[in-house]
Each structure stands twice: as structure tokens, then as C-alpha cells.
Amino acid sequence: MNIESHEHGVRMSTVLATDLDGTVVFEDGIHPADREAIGSWLAAGNTLVLATGKSVDAVRLVWHEVGMPDPDYVIAFTGSVITDGSLHPLAITAHQPGLLDDIVSLVDGEPLVLYASDIEHDYVVAARVSQHSSIVPRSYPADLDRLRHTDLFGIPLYIPDPTVMDRVEPALRKLCAGRAEVHRNQNFLDVVPPGVSKGAGLRRLLTDLIGDHGDVYTLGDSWNDLSMHEVADHPVALAHSPAQVRAHCEATVDSAAQLIAQILKEQK
């Protein structure tokens, strides 16, 4: 892979857009090698984008509050909200009114957890299974009437049983057709506004906010990363990614630290 991108002899900033859950953030947190590598990445003058299905508050909890360096940008809610490195919103896209109530009716009685998220927080609308997951590390009881009159940026569903996932996913996609996007992330379904994806968010960042840049790398392990892999010069998957995700990437690595080390070595 040719990593250097030059203009008038000056190396432009290489961009790394990385997923969080299952890529950099795990049930036991961020691994020390990844933490060190990310610090080295930023110290070398490169650009770091966090691209995640998480809410702004969840990113703050698993990244900023554990002492990680500020990224340059965050694509949150699978692209519904784009922020700067300090989590101040730069671009937002909200759900259409009425969708949450329709999803509540659709999944009534199903063994899952239904969340709804405003610009900051995740709220539990219905919980019929244990709701512990690092993907939604902090949540609050929902006031459904208030949420009906609040801009929502994500409606995540946690479905740990594959049989239930197989039943709910097609029904949810049918309900949301033309009204919202449904992105699969491990045992979550993330319902986000129409046209929203990690790829669309990354493309908007590259075009409107980042400006001149070098090569773009993406790193991710799940289906909701496919759209951003399509935007990259160098899409990279984790070795544990599903076969479909690996097939869309030019390389696989065991960790973010491994990828960053490879790129920094070639930048010298």
C-alpha cells in the first residue's frame, strides 16, 4: 500500500476513520497498545475520525472520560450527528416524527431492548432482556411522551438472540422503508434518519470540513462499517470481522495498533 500523499513536496495528513465497538473499544475497555498507538498517530500530525453508532454521551463515556486524546472529528449515531473532537455538533440530521411509536408497536412483546436517543443521551423505551452492553454503556429511563416531541437521532435495538434478530430485522426494514435507514452492528440494529450512514458522514467530512488530506484509511469490524469502507482509499477490517466485511476490504489486521504501526512505519 502506498501511504504517502504529497502536494508540492509536503506530506498531507493521512486520515484514519475507525469504528469503536469491537474495533478499539471492547468490554474491558481500550487496550493499552491501541491507546498508545492512537497517541502516536495524532502526534505524527495525522487526522483521527471516530465513526460509531454510539450516541454523543456514549462516546464521551468510553473515550473522553477514560483519558483518550481528543480525535479530530466524531461521526456519531452512525452518521446522524457529526461533531468536532470535543463533541460539539457540526452537522445533525434528525428522525421524522412518529417513527418511534411505530417501532414500539412493531416490537411489542419481543425479547429485546429498545432505546431512543436525543442529541446527547440514550433512553430505554422497553427492556425485555438484560440490557448490559458496552455499545450503550449509559442509559436513562425514557419518558415516551417527551421523546415524541424531541428530535431523535438514533433508535437502537439490542437483540442478543439470533432467532429474534432474524425475525425482527426484516420486519423493521419493511417498516422503515423510505422513512429511515437500518444498520446492523453485531447484535444491534441502529435505526437512523434517511440517507444517513458512516460512509455518508465520512464523505461529508472529507468534502466540507477536513479539506486537503492524504490517503483515507477506514478500520471497522461490522456491517455498518461497509459504507465507510466504500469511501476509503484503504479499507481495512479486523480479523474477527464477518466474511462479508472482510471481502470488502483490502487487508485485515488483528488490532488498531497493528494498522497504525504499519502506516507510521511507511510514513518515515
TrEMBL record:
<dbReference type="InterPro" id="IPR023214">
    <property type="entry name" value="HAD_sf"/>
</dbReference>
<dbReference type="GO" id="GO:0016791">
    <property type="term" value="F:phosphatase activity"/>
</dbReference>
<dbReference type="Pfam" id="PF08282">
    <property type="entry name" value="Hydrolase_3"/>
</dbReference>
<protein>
    <submittedName>
        <fullName>HAD family phosphatase</fullName>
    </submittedName>
</protein>
<dbReference type="InterPro" id="IPR036412">
    <property type="entry name" value="HAD-like_sf"/>
</dbReference>
<dbReference type="GO" id="GO:0000287">
    <property type="term" value="F:magnesium ion binding"/>
</dbReference>
<dbReference type="GO" id="GO:0005829">
    <property type="term" value="C:cytosol"/>
</dbReference>
